[in-house]
Model the fold of this input.
Amino acid sequence: MEQQDEILWLEGLEVIRRIISQGHEAYLVGGCVRDRFLGRSLHDIDIATSATPEEVMGLFARTIPTGLKHGTVTIMENGRSFEVTTFRQEFGYSDARRPDKVAFVLDVREDLARRDFTFNAMAIGLNGELVDPFGGKVDLEAGIVSSVGEASERFEEDALRMLRAIRFGAEFDFQLSPELWRGIVEQRPKLKQVAMERVSSEWDKMMAGSGPEQACHYLFKSGLLTNVKEPLPYAFQEAIESYRFNRLPWQWSMSFGDLGSLGSQLLELPLITDPDLRWAALLSGFGIREKDCEDLCRTLRFSGRRIARISSVVGFNERMNELGSFSTKDHWFSAVLAYGRTTSQDWLDMAEAGNRVAAEERGKLAKPAAASISELHIRGNELSSFLGKPPGPWIADLLRYLLEEVAFERVPNERAALLAAAKRVEGNTEL
Ligand code: ATP
Ligand code: MG
Done:
């Protein structure tokens, strides 16, 4: 455990000490308790208390009424924030996401009962006493994700929990309990009620996390992704379905003898560090084309920048596959010319990390002397005055021609050589 985490934890204890000193109950709760047991770094500290939000606000100098209706107050101490929530129960999830109503309660166990998974339903008191009514610690030690209460019912209340279960399972390299898996399969149509932004943000966290291959396995095998609010491109759904109906068991295990070709595509994901390139590797590995990739990223509400980056790498990959071989310099150069240096670099990073290209092969892929018109050592106006022709659309055509000549190493990227080449070709077209 890092020193930072230790300090954060002790500060959390200070906050509950203050609340307890006024005769209330207070505990550190949820993710921070789980992460401390796992020895993982803590994002934030959540506190649960019997005190009402008003009482909490009366105890600390700087507070923000984050969600008074739901009992949450954020308090600021030493430049850090702590979320303090009054013990509560939740009722009625008519939109399969948010409770219609909450009720404050006095017993921490009742508060823990509303939480999603056993390991997220533990609390630690001021003297280190653990409140763990659902066996969260045992599940953590066994490496199992299981729901608090009946999985199917808990997913029916809040469909997002199905994605959270998969995210935690993949992130911690845990198994999903068989009962939890049955719950997901039963309740997967409910995912249609969850906003695309939320689906996307969970899936994106999984892709950037430590078990993207396991996460995708669970997502694909469960049939969840054919039950999202806005349908994903048909080609992608088809790929998922063929993954789903192959012989693999639903439990993830790296020791499978035969992962199948799509399964082995998943194994390259954790080898790639950049999350955007993981997306590109997933989609290109599943045979998704550039256009469908754009549609998928748009459905997932990715930023324009990310859509362009991921889809270009997928397009570049498609092109390399069409060309058959990237060891031919001209093929490689023509792809770099079509997509630009940045994309070619991204593709190489992806392909090399995922072992699609051997490092020595990469060495053979020379950098073209120019990959865009701005890299040419000649400007349009120089061509115009040298050839004595008024500027016009011909300049762009000529520059594009010169770029190819330079990229394919037929003309050096030098002013005199470029002017001579320009003169030759202009002479030709006038004949
Ligand atoms: P992380 O922040 O790493 O995603 P976390 O467990 O802190 O993990 P949060 O979303 O911050 O997750 O939620 C804090 C706590 O609130 C959880 O530990 C869990 O006890 C409870 N919780 C969060 N979302 C849900 C949910 N959809 N259903 C039930 N309980 C939930
Ligand atoms: Mg959290």
Notes: The mean pLDDT is 91.
